Amino acid sequence: MSPSITGTEPSTIIRNAAKRSSISVKATETLWRLKEGGAFVKFTHDGGVSTSDVEKVLKQYLNDQPVKPWWSPWRGMNVSLVKGRPWVEDLFHLPTPRLRVEFVARKPGVEPIELSQEQLYELFRPYGKLNDIVVQPSDSKVLPKFAYLDYAEMRTAVMARNCLHGFVVEETGTRLRLKYERKIKAHWIRDWIVNHPRIVIPILAAIVAGITVAIFDPIRTFFVKAHITRALDIQENSWYKWFMDHATNFIPWHGKPRDDDGMEAVWDDRKENIEQIQTWLMETADTFIIIQGPRGCGKRELVIDQALKDRKYKLVIDCKPIQEARGDSATINAAAAGVGYKPVFSWLNSISGMIDMAAAGSTGIKTGFSETLDSQLAKIWNTTGTALRQIALSQRHKDDKDANLEDDEWLEEHPELRPVVVIDNFLHKSQEGGVVYDKISDWAARLTTSNVAHVVFLTHDVAYSKSLSKALPDRVFHQIPLSDCSPQVAKKFVLRHLDADVADDPAPKDGSPKRYPSQTRTDLQELDTCINLLGGRLTDLEFLARRIKTGETPTKAVHEIIDQSASEILKMYIFGIDDADSRHWSPEQAWLLIKKLADKESLRYNEMLLDDTFKSGGERTLRALEQAELIAIVSSPSGRPSLIRPGKPVYHPAFKRLTNDRVLRSRLDLAVLNELVKVENATIEKCEGELLRLSEIEGRPALIASRVQYLLAKLAKSQKAIEKYEYEMGACKKVLSQEH
Asked: Which compartments is it annotated to reside in (predicted)?
C-alpha cells in the first residue's frame, strides 16, 4: 500500500509539521530502507532555524499527532537527525538490538582514542533505552578497538546505527563505525541440548513415547483386529472359498485335508464336554474355562474345531513358542506373532538399553528409553485387549432394542457375542520362569471381569489353579478334565482312520457294496489286545493307524511303538542328562520309578517319598518328572497327591520292556545301590560321630545309656543294609561282566 495513501509519506509529514510550526522546511529526496523499516529524508530550510530545531519540531509534531503505519498500529513513527555519514548498502545484514561500535582514527596513521562507557552512554542513550554497554577487554589485541551496545528494542538500535555511523567525536577526533552484531551464537540449540541432558533426555523420551502412542498404537490395533477377524486372510475370502469348494472338479491333485480322520468317534464320546463348553460361553459368569488333560488327548481339537467351530471371532495364543523363546527380543517377537501385533521393534530394546545405561551413568537418572520384558508384554496384551473390545462392540447396531445401554452394560448383556480367547499350552515349561504366565493370567482376568471376551485355558499341568488363582482369587473356575479314550472309542478311532482313505472312492461298477479295510483285513482282530497295551492317547492311536496303513500288522506296529517309547525314555530321563542344573532328578530316581511302575500300574505317592532315594527333595523331584511327562500324579478328591502312574499309557509296557533287559537293569540297579550305600554310610558316620562325643562325657552317666543303645542299633541296621546292598551289587556286576 502506498505511503501517500496511508499518511506515512515523509515529505507529507514534514510539510504538515512545517505548516503547523510556521517554519520553512521542504523535503527534497527520500531514500527508503525497507529491510530496516525506515527511510533517509533530505530536506532544505531557509537558515532561519537550525537543523536541531527542525528535529525538535518534527519530534513534537509526531508526539502530538502520532502517525501509525498500518503494519504497526500500536507504535507511532519517530525521527532523528543524522549526525554521521550513513552507509547506504543492500547487503544481507539484518538489524539486531546489539550494535558493534568500532573506533577508527580520523586520519590514517593516527592511533584512535577509545571512548569510555560514560561517553558512549551520552552519545547513544538519546535514541533509546540501553540494556548494557560492553567495552573491549583491556588485554584484547583485536583491531580496531570496539564496544558492544545492547538496546532494549531493535527499532532504537536501527535509529542509532543510521544516525551515528561515521560520526566524528570532536573531543577525541575518533570516528565511529557501526554495524549490527548478532547476539545469538552459532549452534546454540545444539549446545543447549548437550549441556542440559537432565532436561532434554526425559523430554525426548516423552516425545518418543507420544509418537509411538499416536502413530503406532492405532496401526498395531488394526493388525491385531485383522488377525482375529482374519480380514487380511485370503482363505476367508468368499471368492476363494467358492473356488476351493469346486476345485476338486477340475484339479486332480486337490483334495480336502484328512487331519480329522476318525475323530468323529472321539467327538461322539466327548459330546457332553463340547456342549458344556458351548453352554458356558453363553453365560455371563466372569471366570475362566479350563480344559486340563495330558498332551495328545485332543484338548485343542475339542475346543477349537468342535466347541468353537461356529464362533466368528476367536483368538488362539500358543504359549509354547513364547516360553521356549531365548532372550527378551525373541520372547517379545513370539508373543507379538501370536496375536498379530505389528510393527514390532524388539531389536531397539537392546540399543535403547545401552543408551539408558550410558545416560544413567552420565546424568544419574534413568531416561526411560528401554523397556523391561514385563512392560513390553503388558503393551502387547493391552493392545490386544483394546482390539478385542472394539471387535465385540462392532456388533452393536443403532436399531437394537438395547441401543441405549452403555458399552459395558451391553457387553455384560450379550455374552454370546463376545470373542473367545484360547490360551493353549498354558504352563508349558513353567519351571523355567513364570513371568510370561503371570502376565497372561492377569490380562486374561481383566478380559473376563470386564466382559470383553471369554477365556479358555488348555493345559496339561494339574497344578494350574495355583497360578490362575492369583489372577482371580475369588472365582470358581469352570473345569473339564480330559483323559485318554476308552478301549471301545480307541478301536473306533483306529478303524475309521483306516476306512477314511477309501471313503470318497467310487462304488464298484458291478454294483456290489463298497468294502472298507476294516472289513477286508483279517489282522485287525489283534486290535483289542494291541489297544489294551497302547492305551487311549490320541497321538499314539493315530501313529498306530498310520503304521497299519503302511501294511504292518497291529501287533508289529504296537511293538515298534513300544520299542520307540522305550528308547525315548532312556534318552530323555536316564542317559540324556548332560546338564544337572536343568533337571531336578537323577537317573537313579527316574529308574527306580520305572522299575516299580513296570511291576504295578500305580504307586502310592507318599510311599515313594519314604524311599531313601527320594529322601532329599522328593516332592520337587516327583513334580519335575511329572512336568517332563515320565509320570502322572493323580490327586484325591480333597486335592492332595495320592497316586503315581506312567505319564502315557504306552509307557507302562515300555517300562516292562526296559526292565526285561538284564544288562540295562543290572547297570541301573548298580547305580541305585551305590546311592543307597552312600546314604547308609552317611548314617553310620553320623552315628559314630555322636557316639564319640558321648564317650567323652566324664563319668558316663546312666541317662545317656538309652541314647547309646539307640545309636548302636541304628548303626547295626545300616551295616546290615550295606551288606545286603553289596551282595546285590555283586549279582549286578556278574551280569554286566558276562552278558552284553
From this structure: Mitochondrion inner membrane
